[in-house]
Amino acid sequence: MITKMLKALSVLLLFLGFIGLFYWALSHDSTELPSQLIDGPVPEFSVNDLMQPESMLTPEIFQGKISLLNVWASWCAACYTEHPYWEEYAKLDDLQIIGLNYNDKKEKALNFLETQGNPYEKILFDVKGRVGIEFGVYGAPETFLIDPKGKVRYRHVGIVSPEVFQDKLMPLIEKIKLGF
Fold first, then answer.
1. Residue that wins the pLDDT comparison between 29 and 122
2. 0.85 exceeded by the pTM?
């Protein structure tokens, strides 16, 4: 009798565990991956600018401006979907849009920009993916919000659609402008 009750209790607990796991999976936002960089400084790097190869870019490009660092590549299908939105975001006066061309071939990256447009003020050319690794990039597209002091404030994995921009990024940008 006691063994039957223990078996029934075990089955019930296992069932409740599966229900809890199922609920968590449905309610969990996969675009918000944790990042150890949040509220910390931008990682150190020194890479060429894709458009001006003689120019070396370092974390100092983030000083004094609110920046969005968009990780993209010509091999990334979602980047083609996302790219027209960056043209719109680049029109905002108080926001600097920086590209991180991730693990790409130079000719293909330049062709992407020629056919899709170039919304970026500067583009980190990360041919070997080292800068991406320092940022903890899983793939493209990913976007980092960086404050004027060079601190990473937010990370978004996936396409930055107009809804994501308005609902997630703009409130954080406004907080940064207010000094938070």
1. 122
2. no
